[in-house]
Amino acid sequence: MGCLGLSLSDFSALTPAEFRAAADSWARQREADAEDAWERMRLLATVTIQPHIKKRLTPQQLLPLPWDKPRDNRPHPPSTSERVAEIMGRKGRG
Q: pTM of the entire structure?
């Protein structure tokens, strides 16, 4: 089915949690592929421009990218148990 490459029978056999895990894994792989392409591009740009400048230049200086920041500063999605607790809390207030 679609971009995940699942057959209809495999898709139908998945639980919602299994589908979420497969979709999340696919999305992480796509993000990693995109980051890899940008890393290669900025490395090539740095190597190309380096002979024409006096100061030593790093790829991060030439083209800063969002993932150059420490990963600890990125917001972390809530864990499954945190989401369940949140949903159960809302249900109890209803």
A: 0.59
